[in-house]
């Protein structure tokens, strides 16, 4: 087929490029774009502002919060978003040099517009007005003999009750490494003012020490990682009414669900640090954001189902730009255009505080669906935009089902990229080329040819790449 491809490319170039009538990218008639889902590009990432500390968007010194981290979020029945923070300190705010150590604190807000920052309405406070610990750690020496602190890793709400998943830290080790006694679920029936220990625990060597949680298809799904930042992700689920019954949890085995955690398999390979997961309607994918400590960057993966398979990682933020970064917590309330823009919370150890970040995605557009009827002729339309520097859309029409090959060639006739090689039904189609070759490298500036073969018919179009 390759020889036939190259021969037809030369033979039909003149007649196809200049005799074929110029048509809009989407063609004539009634059609709609179908978005195949997934990320085509990371458009931009920026810091919106600092949420905690002094100074910050919230000037949290008024509740004696000068330093804190994490900030996993959940929506409660009272209409507020609650923010769970880890070890919290008074001035100057750094661990080891500051007073008023609280193992965890919690703020809340009804501010759902993140583009200009997030303003806290208040904190869970004690009689003195300072942000108080929800479940205080014992603050034993960091020698592995007791409990240093209790760190909340995720929260959720169900039928008016708040829940949080915390880990009991036994010893802080080298950066990114620590030992725990156990993880446990606590709950509150008074909007977070007082908390009870449930006794529902996972042992210190469990893969469910730190979790991300999402509700889906009648279950709470928990993506879990072990202590530290070097483990991989396993998945569990449970019916919401049974969330405090450990025996009701089922663990994903790769083919089904098991009552034994030991049968669970990794759904994302190591290393994964603090993570969160949500469904993104714009991308039509689940997205998982986490710290890759080995690469010192926050990454994002996507999947069609909670179980995966989870795709290759995208870099979201790097220590090159944000030294000492960690944590990556998202919530579905803090998105725009159904998830084209996603806001997340990122901690930085250099200031030991939490920052609001924004990432903008561009999604994949895969085809055009005809409604109703089918094209009467075979056509390859001019790509748009043309010239282009980032990506371009390529539309074509099939009057009947056929085996389709769509390839990009350079001026020497060398194949650059195969975009389509499959059997397709009749209709209008749309694919994108991101300007990369088979190796994933961006092509050089210059003239390229888009070649379409469907059955025994072929078309060619010129494409100009500018840098």
Write up this protein.
The protein is mainly beta and 467 residues long. It folds into 2 domains: 2-35 and 365-465, Macroglobulin (MG2) domain (Immunoglobulin-like, Sandwich); 42-362, Tachylectin-2, Chain A, CATH 2.115.10.20. It is built from 1 helix and 31 strands. The strands form 8 sheets. Strands 11, 12, 13, 14, 15 and 16 form a 6-stranded antiparallel sheet that branches. The chain has a 4-stranded antiparallel sheet with strand order 2-23-22-21, with no helix packed on it. A hairpin with a 4-residue loop joins strand 14 (250-252) and strand 15. It is elongated, with a radius of gyration of 26 Å. It starts with a helix and ends with a strand. The relative contact order is 0.15.
Uncertain regions spanning at least 5 consecutive residues = 1-33, 367-372
Percent of residues in helical segments?
under 10%
User: Looking at this structure, what is the CATH superfamily of the largest domain?
Assistant: Glycosyl hydrolase domain, family 43
> CATH topology of the largest domain, what is it called?
Tachylectin-2, Chain A
Q: Which class of secondary structure composition applies to the elements?
A: mainly beta
CATH architecture of the largest domain: 5 Propeller
Strand content: over 45%
Domains (count): 2
Largest β-sheet summary? 6 strands, antiparallel
């Amino acid at each position: 087929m390759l020889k036939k491809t190259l021969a037809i490319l030369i033979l039909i170039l003149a007649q196809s490029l200049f005799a074929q009538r110029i048509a809009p990218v989407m063609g004539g008639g009634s059609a709609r774009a179908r978005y195949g889902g997934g990320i085509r590009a990371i458009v931009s990432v920026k810091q919106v502002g600092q949420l905690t500390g002094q100074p910050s968007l919230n000037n949290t010194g008024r509740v004696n919060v000068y330093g804190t981290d994490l900030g996993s979020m959940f929506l409660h029945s009272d209409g507020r978003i609650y923010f769970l923070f880890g070890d919290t300190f008074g001035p100057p705010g750094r661990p080891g040099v500051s007073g008023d150590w609280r193992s965890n604190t919690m703020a809340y807000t009804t501010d759902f517009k993140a583009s200009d920052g997030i303003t806290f309405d208040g904190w869970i406070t004690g009689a003195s007005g300072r942000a108080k610990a929800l479940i205080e750690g014992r603050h034993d020496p960091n020698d592995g003999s007791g409990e240093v602190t209790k760190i909340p890793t995720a929260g959720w709400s169900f039928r008016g009750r708040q829940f949080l998943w915390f880990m009991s830290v036994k010893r802080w080790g080298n950066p990114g490494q620590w030992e725990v006694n156990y993880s446990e679920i606590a709950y509150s029936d008074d909007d977070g003012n007082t908390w009870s220990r449930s006794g529902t625990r996972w042992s210190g060597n469990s893969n469910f020490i730190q979790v991300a949680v999402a509700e889906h298809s009648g279950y709470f799904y928990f993506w879990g990682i072990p202590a530290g930042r070097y483990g991989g992700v396993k998945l569990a689920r449970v019916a919401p009414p049974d969330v405090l019954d450990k025996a009701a949890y089922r663990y994903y085995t790769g083919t089904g669900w098991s009552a034994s955690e030991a049968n669970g398999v990794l759904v994302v390979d190591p290393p994964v640090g603090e993570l969160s997961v949500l469904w993104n309607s714009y991308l039509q994918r689940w997205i998982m954001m986490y710290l890759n400590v080995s690469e010192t960057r926050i990454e994002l993966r996507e999947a069609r189902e909670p179980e995966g398979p989870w795709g290759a990682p995208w870099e979201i933020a790097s220590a090159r730009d944000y030294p000492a970064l960690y944590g990556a917590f998202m919530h579905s309330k803090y998105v725009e255009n159904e998830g084209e823009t996603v806001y997340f919370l990122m901690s930085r150890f250099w200031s030991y505080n939490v920052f609001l970040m924004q990432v903008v995605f561009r999604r994949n557009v895969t085809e055009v669906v005809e409604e109703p009827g089918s094209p009467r002729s075979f056509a390859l339309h001019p790509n748009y935009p043309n010239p282009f520097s980032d990506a371009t859309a390529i539309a074509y029409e099939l009057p009947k089902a056929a085996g389709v090959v769509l390839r990009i060639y350079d001026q020497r006739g060398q194949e650059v990229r195969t975009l389509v090689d499959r059997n397709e039904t009749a209709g209008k189609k749309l694919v994108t080329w991101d300007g990369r070759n088979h190796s994933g490298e961006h092509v050089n500036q210059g003239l390229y040819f888009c070649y379409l073969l469907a059955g025994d018919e072929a078309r060619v179009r010129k494409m100009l790449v500018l840098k």
